[in-house]
Specification:
The protein has about 475 residues and is an alpha/beta fold. The protein is built from twelve helices and 16 strands. The chain has two domains: about 350 residues, Alkaline Phosphatase, subunit A (3-Layer(aba) Sandwich), CATH 3.40.720.10; about 70 residues, Arylsulfatase, C-terminal domain (2-Layer Sandwich), CATH 3.30.1120.10.
């Protein structure tokens, strides 16, 4: 009897321990599930506006100071052969959003109303990340449309938006209004396009909004497209950034004359250009510091790029700082200087710090890359190829492009370009006469595109012409057809 009395409480204790063990195991499993959800990397894509390949220290800039972006490159991977979607903003951003190059995309030039249509064919990168459980936001200059149209950011798979809806509106840093989602926010003390000055500097608003968004979403996976208007014209920067460069250069004041009149004036365009880029660099540093302070840095992917080559509006002279790097051309050109752009990816624990990739890639690769990162299937009818193998250092598994293709219409001229391996073909067409001119360059031997080999390499030229013809499909827009 005595023995039985001892065994009963022992059994009770054992049962209790077993029950507690089950509860602890369940809690641990629940925590593990939550941990797994939380460990999905946040993604921040920082898109500069008209920043040249050579405007950053990590890409060879010797005068303009960009310590934060250089630090980002030192902590991540720097791409040397990455291309924008186009040589101007709307089609370039359209390629980024949809994974299609300008031979297939709806948007192929800048113009009012060239928004991404509201139909199933215009699914953006935001949709794939939403489906993976990410909260999606775009702050700054809209990448989906040119007006308050069916291309509005909220209608194109972004949960939150704050910034410029119109690309033309983004020509001033002192807008009369911005949009928070579909609500217009007015700034009556700004001059808009009338005086180009005012009290409220849009970039102050954007970086503040971005930092607040990161803080608010720190406990859930988020995708932030930070679309800075810097260093686009107008040429203006806060004094705290200008003072670093004032008096260091011989300046030719820009009085807002001629076709560039609507960009305002600049008394020190060289110093101001440098200050704008340094201000952009400071913003990147603010984002990185915010991630560190919240303990998110190790679980956040940062990508940085520019929508096209450097501009020459508002008194800016790209050649002064060698903004195109070693390349020929600027914004609106399909030479390398107009479309080859910086691309940096930091991903702690995955991307090797301080690494460099020569993989040939473009904006239309970003959508499938992010889909891969998020663990969702990429669409089949796109031109992009995921860069995930390259980011993970699995270069032998990286699928290469057969070619890259661009097209662009400017006034009386239609332009096309195609890169295959080391070769690049350009086509220039007079839209009235129909006269066509071709140029062919070997980018390895001649990165500056100074030696036209169209006559000497007729076989290669013929191959690339055939590929160029196949890369093009007619757009629904009433525009020049190649």
């Amino acid at each position: 009897m005595k023995t039985k009395n001892i065994q009963k409480p022992m059994l009770t204790r054992l049962f209790t321990y077993a029950l507690l063990g089950c509860l602890v195991t369940g809690v641990m499993a629940c925590n593990a599930s939550n941990c797994e959800k939380k460990q999905r990397p946040n993604i921040i894509y920082i898109l500069a506006d008209d920043l040249g390949y050579g405007d950053l220290g990590c890409y060879g800039q010797e005068v303009i100071k960009t310590p934060q972006i250089d630090k980002l490159a030192g902590q991540g991977m720097r791409f040397t052969d990455h291309y924008a979607g186009s040589t101007v903003c709307a089609p370039s951003r359209g390629a980024l959003m949809t994974g299609q190059h300008t031979g297939h995309a709806y948007i192929r030039m800048n113009d009012k109303g060239l928004e991404l249509r509201k139909n199933p064919d215009d699914i953006t990168v935001g949709k794939y990340l939403q489906d993976a459980g990410y909260h999606t936001a775009m702050i700054g200059k809209a990448c989906t449309g040119c007006d308050n149209t069916p291309g509005h950011v909220n209608q194109k798979d972004f949960d939150y938006f704050f910034g410029y809806l119109g690309h033309g509106q983004a020509h001033t840093y002192f807008p009369k209004f911005l949009h928070r989602n579909e609500k217009q926010i007015n700034y009556p003390n700004n001059g808009g396009e009338e005086t180009w000055r005012g009290e409220t500097y849009s970039s102050d608003l954007f970086i503040g909004e971005a930092l607040g968004y990161i803080e608010n979403k720190k406990d859930e996976p988020f995708f932030l497209l930070y679309s800075s208007p810097l260093p686009h014209a107008q040429v203006w920067a806060p004094e705290e950034f200008e003072k670093e460069y004032k008096g260091k250069f011989e300046e030719e004041p820009f009085t807002g004359r001629g076709k560039n009149k609507h960009y305002g004036t600049s008394l020190t365009p060289h110093a101001t250009t440098a200050a704008m880029i340094s201000r952009l660099d400071w913003e990147v540093g603010q984002i990185m510091a915010k991630l560190e302070s919240l303990g998110l840095a190790d679980n956040t992917i940062i990508m940085f790029s520019s929508d096209n080559g450097p501009h020459e509006e508002g008194g800016r002279k790209p050649e002064f700082f060698k903004s195109s790097g070693p390349f020929r051309g600027i914004k609106r050109d399909l030479y390398e200087g107009g479309i080859r752009v910086p691309f940096i990816v930091k991903w702690p624990g995955t991307v090797k710090p301080g690494s460099t990739s020569h993989h040939v890639s473009a904006f239309w690769d970003i959508l499938p890359t992010m889909a891969d990162i998020a663990g969702v299937d990429s669409p089949q009818n796109i031109d992009g190829i995921s860069l995930l193998p390259t980011l993970k250092g699995h270069n032998k598994k990286q699928v290469e492009h057969d070619y890259l293709y661009w097209e662009f219409k400017k006034l009386k001229n239609g332009k096309r370009a195609l890169r295959k391996d080391d070769w690049k073909l350009l086509q220039f067409t007079n839209t009235k006469s129909g006269k066509v001119h071709y140029e062919l360059y070997n980018l390895v031997d001649d990165p500056a595109e100074s030696n036209n080999l169209i006559q000497q390499e007729s076989k290669i030229a013929a191959e690339l012409k055939a590929l160029m013809k196949g890369a093009y499909s007619e757009s629904e827009l009433k525009m020049f057809r190649f």
